[in-house]
Design brief:
- This protein is of the alpha/beta class and about 120 residues long.
- It has one domain: 3-Layer(aba) Sandwich (Rossmann fold), CATH 3.40.50.
- Helix content is about 40%, strand content about 20%.
- It is built from 6 helices and 5 strands.
- It has a 5-stranded parallel sheet with strand order 2-1-3-4-5, sandwiched between helices.
- Strand 3, helix 4 and strand 4 form a beta-alpha-beta unit.
């Protein structure tokens, strides 16, 4: 995989941003991380990302609000929710079609979920 595809991580937990960034960089991705949805929206991440990983609960705008704002702007970039909240409660808010990972999650599960939204995005050897 070339270093060109950019993945955005939007999570208010620095440790999550760092761990997920390290994993994705090991696959050759360019990774940008943001501590809030507002920070993400104020930058070029929405237009340059091939995939967005967003926490559901953050200070300020939630990941669900971010998802809705992107879709209202016509931005259809695949988004995967990362949540420590109740899976069923979040699923009720976002519907059955939005991918979601329950924290903590294994790297293999993240890779499989990313490949489910963009087939062939991560090639495992």
């Amino acid at each position: 995989m070339s270093a060109e595809p950019e993945i955005s991580i939007v999570d208010d937990e620095a440790s999550v941003r760092q761990a997920v960034s390290s994993l994705l960089r090991s696959f050759g991705f360019k990774v940008k991380s943001y501590a809030s949805a507002e920070e993400f929206l104020s930058g070029a991440g929405a237009s340059s990302s091939v995939c967005i990983l967003a926490d559901v609960k953050m200070g300020g705008m939630s990941g669900i609000d971010l998802f809705r704002k992107l879709r209202s702007r016509g931005i259809e970039t695949p988004l995967i929710f990362l949540t420590a909240s109740s899976y069923d409660a979040v699923r009720a808010l976002v519907g059955p079609d939005v991918p979601m990972l329950q924290k903590p999650f294994e790297g293999e599960k993240l890779v499989a979920t990313m490949n489910s939204v963009i087939p062939g995005l991560i090639e495992l050897s």
